[in-house]
Amino acid sequence: MKFELLNRVLLAVCCCFFQTAFAQDAGPLKIGFVDVQAVASKSPQLAEGNKRLEKEFSARSDALKGMQASYMQLRDRLQKEGLTMNTDDQRKLEDQILGQERKIRWEQGIMDEDFKIRRNQVAADVRKDIFKTIATLAQKEGYDLILTDGVLMSSARVNLTERVLTELKNNAGEKKK
After folding, report:
1. Of 33, 29, 28, 30, which is closest to residue 134 (Cα–Cα)?
2. pTM (2 decimals)?
């Protein structure tokens, strides 16, 4: 009985608080939705970042291709001349091939790891730009709430994805100048 009375009193108090909060409301909520994945995949910042990564890793990739070509030449030599070589020369060539193969795998692993780290850094920078652009757009146009992931459906009226993408493209153009 006391518990029921306490619940009613708390409910009445909460209603009073919410009523004053709703009375102060200036109007309907303005809600928008942004598909961050779509914006990120189409953003010029990501394309530019990928070009920088390609340029940054091209020298290492070319060096690795050179090592692989040298390795293939050694294997071809062993295959062609292996039967006519003396045992010591054949063993030295096999050791050289094995050493080169290990070095290639090692260098490839390090390059792949470095590339993943840099790609994640570029993606994080792009996400920061996207969220900053969304916040600026929301503030400028008076949005109360912007939703991103986990939205099942959004109408064209609240979908701001293309507008955010346009802002990002404009920002990318301004940075180049």
Report:
1. 33
2. 0.68
Tokens of 33: 């939705």
Q: How far apart are the C-alpha atoms of 95 and 89, rounded to whole Å?
A: 10
Strands (E) in 108-164, as ranges, are: 145-147
Q: Kindly give, in sequence order, each residue whose CB lies less than 8 Å from that of residue 34, ignoring residues fewer than 6 positions away.
A: 134, 146, 147, 148, 159, 160, 161, 164
Chain centroid offset of residue 25 CA: 38
Specify the amino acid at residue 30.
K
If we measure between CA atoms, which residue out of 76, 37, 53 comes closest to residue 165? 37
Q: Are 44 and 168 in contact (CB under 8 A)?
A: yes
Q: How far is Cα 45 from Cα 124, in angstroms, rounded to an integer?
A: 11
CB contact at 8 A, 51 and 91: no
Write out the chain's pLDDT in tens, 177 residues.
554 544 444 444 444 444 444 545 567 888 888 989 989 999 999 999 999 999 999 999 999 999 999 999 999 999 988 788 888 989 999 999 999 999 999 999 999 999 999 999 999 999 999 999 999 999 998 888 888 888 777 777 888 888 888 888 888 777 665
Place of tokens 């039967």: 83
